[in-house]
Amino acid sequence: MKLRVKFEKGDEVKLISHLNLIKVFVQALRRSGLPVAYSEGFSPHPRVSFGPPLTLGIKSKGEFADLVLEKAIDKDEFKIRFNKELPEGLKIMEVGEVPRESKSLMAIIDIATYKIKPDGEGRSLDISLHLKGKIKIKEAVKSLLGKEELNLASLDMERTGLFVEKEGKLVSPLEL
Predict the structure, then answer these.
(1) Tens digits of per-residue pLDDT, 37-65?
(2) What contacts 24+ positions apart, CB below 8 Å, involve 99-104?
(3) Are residues 154 and 116 in contact, defined by beta-carbon separation less than 8 angstroms?
(4) Is 132 exposed, middle or buried (0-12, 13-18, 19+ CB in 10 A)?
(5) Where are the domains of the chain?
(6) Tell me, what DSSP letter sits at residue 57?
(7) Three-state DSSP class for residue 20
(8) How far is it, in rounded angstroms, from Cα 7 to Cα 25?
(9) Which of 3.40.50.720, 3.40.50.300, 3.30.70.580, 3.40.630.10 is the CATH number of 2-103?
(10) What global pTM score does this model have?
(11) Are strands 48-50 and 90-98 parallel, antiparallel or unpaired?
(12) What DSSP string describes 73-120?
């Protein structure tokens, strides 16, 4: 069984790097006792893969990860048990089953959307960024705000979603 989870990364953990986020997920999976499948070989590791990494200092309401389980489990039970072991600021929002042979999240996700509040309050900017392009989020925000230098962690910034572009429409990776 392969599950695709949508999770939130809040203010409390926005300064955790992508590699540390992976470690946190793996530790939470071990503590939860969920039947996670492991790779084969000399140094087995849980079969977990993530979508595009989130820039340090940005929170998110729509990150994704795929997890392979050894046996079927109720999706609601999975969500409850996993959330119980995650630290404050990380929360599984939705769980869906995908075919075991489905493409990786990194291969299918095309678009990321962001909401930026440059002054912390009041007006906000919505940005859609094609992830397979050459423009990165920091360069896009610098250009929009007309700044030479920019510390993304100093802005109130949130990734609001990750999407697959399918037939000209944006589709959630959970809907594939």
Answers:
(1) 999 989 999 999 999 999 888 999 999 99
(2) 99/2, 100/1, 100/2, 100/68, 102/2, 102/66, 102/176, 104/49, 104/66
(3) no
(4) exposed
(5) 2-103, 108-175
(6) T
(7) helix
(8) 11
(9) 3.30.70.580
(10) 0.91
(11) unpaired
(12) --HHHHHHHHHHHSPTTEEEEEEEEE-TTPPPHHHH--EEEEEEETTS
Q: What are phi and psi of 27, to 5 degrees?
A: -65, -40
Are 60 and 92 within 8 A, CB to CB? Answer: no
Q: Which residues pair with 91 in a beta bridge?
A: 8
User: From residue 56, how far is each of 17, 37, 85, 134, 141 by CA, in Å?
Assistant: 6, 29, 23, 19, 15
The amino acid occupying position 162 is L
Q: Which amino acid is at 14?
A: K
63 CB contacts (<8 Å, ≥6 apart)? Answer: 6, 7, 8, 9, 50, 51, 54, 159, 162
Residue 78 carries which side chain, given as an amino acid letter? F
12-43 residue pLDDT tens: 999 999 999 999 999 999 999 999 999 998 99
Token pair recorded at residue 153: 């962690």
Euclidean distance between the first and the last CA atom of the chain, given in angstroms as a whole number: 16
